[in-house]
Amino acid sequence: MSATDVTGMATDEQADDAGGGEEGGVEESGAPGGTARPRWRRAVGALAPAVIYSSIQGLAVLALSWLTSVRGTSLVDALRSWDGWWFRAIAEGGYSGVPTYLVDSFGHRDATTPLAFFPGYPKLVGLLSTTTGMSSTTAGITVSVLSGVACAYALAAMGELVRGGSRRVGLVLVALFAASPMGIALTMVYSEALFCAFAAWALVFLLRRQWVYAGLLCACAGLVRTTGAALVAAIGLAAVVAVVSRKDSWRPWVGGLLAPLGLLGYLGFVAYRTGELNGWFALQERGWDSRFDWGVATAGWVVDRLSDGRSILDFVELLVLLGSLVLVVVAARARVAWPLVVHGAVVLVMTFASNGTMASKIRLMIPAFTLLVPVAIGLAKRRTSTVLVTCACVAVVSSWFGAYSLVLWGYAI
Fold first, then answer.
1. Is 32 exposed, middle or buried (0-12, 13-18, 19+ CB in 10 A)?
2. What is the C-alpha separation between 148 and 335, in angstroms, rounded?
3. Which residues contact 407 (CB under 8 A, 6 or more apart)?
4. Residue 1's pLDDT is what?
5. How many angstroms separate the Cα of 276 from the Cα of each of 227, 273, 350?
6. How far apart are alpha carbons 396 and 183 in whole angstroms?
7. Cα–Cα distance between 180 and 197 in angstroms, integer?
8. 366-376: per-residue pLDDT in tens?
9. Which of 267, 260, 216, 217 is CA-nearest to residue 236?
C-alpha cells in the first residue's frame, strides 16, 4: 500500500506513525534486524543536512570573497548590500528610527516608506543584536545562516515524506536548494533564508497533517515576506480539502485559520498607518515601481532578451525563468503532493506577474524550492558518483553566478 493518499499527503496510518497529533514526531528507525546503527553513523546522519547546506553556501561565500578582492570591494559590504541596509536600519532603530539617507528607488522618503519591508526578519535581527551585543550586520548574517540550516533539515524531512522519497532524496534536495541560482542571498542580510525555513517546516508539518503547527509557521512566514501568500494558498486549500473530506477533526479548521494571520495582520497594520486599504502595495508602487501587472512586464522582457541578449545575467535569468515553468509541469506530472506544487507555482506567479527590477526575479524564485522535489527524486536514483559530481558542478556554477551578479552586475539582488 502506498504511504500517501491521492494528494501526496500522509495517510491516517502514516500520520499516526509520525505523531498524527500536534505533539508527534518521527522516530529514528534502526538497522535491519533490529540492531542499532553505530553511534558515529547516527551522528553523521544527523549532521548531514547541515554539512551539505553549509558546504555549498560556504563555497558561494568563498566565490564572492574572491571576486570582491579582485574588484577591490568589501565582502561584508556585498553581504549587507541593497535591502540589507534597510533591514539593518529597522533592526537598529525600528521603523521610526530609519536614517533619512535611506530612500526609495526614486530618491523619495516619508514616514511610511520603511513599512515596505516586512518586520519578521529585521525584528529578529534586532533582538539577537540587542541580547548578544553583535553588530546588526553580524546578527543579520547569523540569523540567515541559522535559518538556512533549519530549512535544510526541513527539506531533508520533506524528501522522506514525498511520494517516492527517501533520506537520499532529502539530502539531494538540500544540495539543490543550497545551490539555487542567487542562493548567496540565503547568507546575506536578507529575509529569504528565514522565510524559507518557516515555509519548509510549515509544509513538512502539512505533509504530516499536523495542522496547528503548519498554520502557526505559516503565520510566522507571513510576517517575513509577502511571498507568504503562496504558503497561505497551499495550506489554506489543503485545510479546505481536509474539512470537506471530514479528516483530522478540528485541526484543519485551526490550521487554516491561523495560516493567514501574519500576512493579513501586517498588511492591515500598514493600511492603518498609511490610511490606504492597499497601503503596502501602494508603497511598493510609489517607491519601487513594483506592482501586479499580470505578467506584462515579464513577457516584454523575455521577448526583448530573446531578440537581443545583452549580458550573461540576462541569458541565465531567461533560462531560469523558462526552466522554472518546466519544473511546474514536471512536478505536477510526477504527482508531487499538490500543496507543494501549489506553493511553488504561486511563488512563480507572484514573481512573474509583477514588474519591477527583472534582474531580481532569480532571487525572488528561491522560495519556490518545492519545485525541486522531482529533480531530487530523479537525481537520487543515479549512482552516488553521478549525484556528487552533478551537485558539485551545480554548486560551482551557482557560486560563480551569485558572485558575478552581486559584484559585476550589481542589480541582481
1. exposed
2. 27
3. 64, 67, 68, 71, 73, 78
4. 32
5. 21, 8, 22
6. 12
7. 15
8. 999 999 999 99
9. 260
Please report the pLDDT score of residue 7 as a whole number: 52
Query: What DSSP assignment string belongs to 167-217?
Result: HHHHHHHHHHHHT-TTGGGGGSSSSHHHHHHHHHHHHHHHHTT-HHHHHHH
Residue 150, pLDDT score? 97
Residues of the chain with pLDDT under 50: 1-4, 6, 12-33, 309
**pLDDT given for residue 143 in this prediction:** 96
pLDDT at 289: 66
Cell of residue 149, nine digits: 540550516
CA distances from residue 41 to 25, 37, 44, 55, 394 in whole angstroms, order as listed: 21, 7, 5, 19, 27
Q: Which amino acid is at 217?
A: L
The C-alpha angle with vertex 299 and arms to 296 and 305, in degrees rounded to 5, equals 140
Q: How far is CA 38 from the centre of its chain?
A: 34
**252-273 pLDDT, tens per residue?**
999 999 999 999 998 998 898 8
Per-residue CA distances from 253 to 236, 237, 244 (Å): 9, 11, 11
pTM of the model: 0.85
Give me the pLDDT at residue 216, please: 96
Distance CA 197, CA 39 (A): 28
Please give the DSSP secondary-structure letter assigned to residue 314.
H
How many angstroms separate the Cα of 268 from the Cα of each of 217, 260, 310?
19, 12, 41
**Single-letter amino acid, residue 179:** A
Which pLDDT belongs to residue 245? Answer: 87
Which residues have C-beta within 8 Å of that of residue 223, sequence separation ≥ 6? Answer: 118, 119, 120, 262, 263, 265, 266
Do 324 and 341 form a contact (C-beta atoms < 8 A)?
no
β-pair partners for 10 = 4
First to last CA, the chain: 46
* pLDDT of the residue at 306: 54
CA distances for 344 relative to 170, 287, 351, 385, 393, angstroms: 17, 27, 11, 29, 24
